[in-house]
Amino acid sequence: MDGILDTEGTVKALTTEPLDDCVLGQSADSHISHLPGKLDEVRIWKTVRSAEQIYGFRQRILTVWDPRLVALWTFNEGKGLVAHDWSGNGHTAVLGGNNKSKAPTWLFGTDSPNLGLQFDGAGYVAIRNVSQIELTQYTVELRIKPMGVPEKTWSGLVGKEHFGFTLLLNQDGSIRHWINGTSGLVSVDTASGLIEWDQWNHIAATFDGRTACVYINGEVQATQVVDGANDADTSNLYIGRGKTNDSPARAYFQVQVDALRIWSVALVADLIGRDYGVRIHSDSDNLAAYWPMDENAGLHIVDEVSGLQGNIHSQSGKTPTWVAISPLQFADPKLDGAHECIEVPNSDSLAVTTDFTITAWIRPQSYAGVQSIISKTNELGESQFALSVDGETLRFDYASSDFSLTGGQLLEVLFNPINPADE
Predict the structure, then answer these.
(1) Cα–Cα distance between 283 and 278 in angstroms, integer?
(2) How many CA atoms lie within 13 A of 92 on its CB side?
(3) Handedness of CA 243, 245, 248, 249 (dihedral sign)
């Protein structure tokens, strides 16, 4: 629990596959009640994760597809009756199953307080170049809230002096992604009218060495093949302005900025769509730099990955200021503990019978009785494996064997059964 191994045991492996649906928040066992509380980030692996892996990945956003990952439900949808399986295996979870009246409600929370920088038509942030942001393939993303339509045609959002992963805003509501490749400067432009003035917008740009993309609020809006490899830009990075004094993209404008992230890979569309509105952990895979901009004082912003510092500069007597802004939101299904549940139709890849790992975040509203987190049954309705809260302890049932562990909010079970052939 909380990433620390608490108890382990050895039992016989299942000789029959669990063939029925997988259910979250409910159990086929009538003695186990529904889970009252919040459920989040459920993962099923078809391998036994080591103690180091469980602890190290308990708060990480997974940005690389792993063939050993059977199912991953992040529950960040915030609406509707389905939760997407981000493992790529297509295990769509249905809130309430076949009975919509059993669907849990979406509960919204925030990373609060959330802060950001406000640029009042002048001033910028400069970040000295280091090797971790000298990238030939990348993703750069940030949140912006333009305070009205800019006066100039083009305004700089973020980018390097030599145009490395540069993002520009046009007063027509479009975004330009500049790439300085071996064949020259390439512009990848979205359609106009996509940016909402006086509202928060998430902007992302990717380049995988061949194709450049621009995303707005998690949706791809422009794609272009680039001839020639992208040169690693060794110049400094700027936020809130463009390249040089004579660059039209240098134009300052009034905008609030938050959560600049730079990745050393081109994230796929599904990952950008999944995580663009979610606060991430600083040790996420392939994260090169991350400035949440939550300092709330001083003239510096600090990267949470390696401590790379950005210096806040004045221009024309104006200095960017710290402001409380619209916080990053997260959504979780909230189960009532009486009849609500989430069902996942059975498939061959969910029929895990030997080496596997189940992880989940939960926040119980009470510790009364045995409450189901996740369970799976066979064709006879018999429980094959189940993870549940038993009072203030964690309980794991596997066929006829069970374990009891000290309680906690982060629940992780490591299990490695004996193969009958080994007896």
Answers:
(1) 15
(2) 6
(3) positive
Neighbours of 147 (CB within 10 A): 16
The winner for highest mean pLDDT among 10-14, 109-113, 254-258, 370-374 is 254-258
**SS3 assignment for 39-57:** EEEEEEECCCCCHHHHHHH
The SS3 call for residue 37 is: strand
3-state secondary structure of 101: helix
Q: Please, which pLDDT band fits residue 419 given cuts at 50, 70 and 90? A: very low
d(C-alpha 388, C-alpha 375), whole Å: 8
Q: How far is CA 365 from CA 3, 34, 39, 41, 238, in A?
A: 21, 12, 11, 18, 46
Euclidean distance between CA atoms 7 and 11, whole angstroms: 13
Rounded Cα distance between 210 and 232, Å, is 14
Among the listed residues 158, 66, 97, the one whose alpha carbon sits nearest the alpha carbon of residue 343: 97
Chain segment 289-320, per-residue pLDDT in tens: 999 888 888 999 999 899 999 999 988 888 99
For residue 230, give the nearest of 332, 122, 138, 361 by alpha carbon: 138
Question: Tokens standing for 393?
Answer: 């302890």
CA distance 181 to 310: 26
Rounded-to-integer distance, Cα 311 and Cα 266, Å: 27
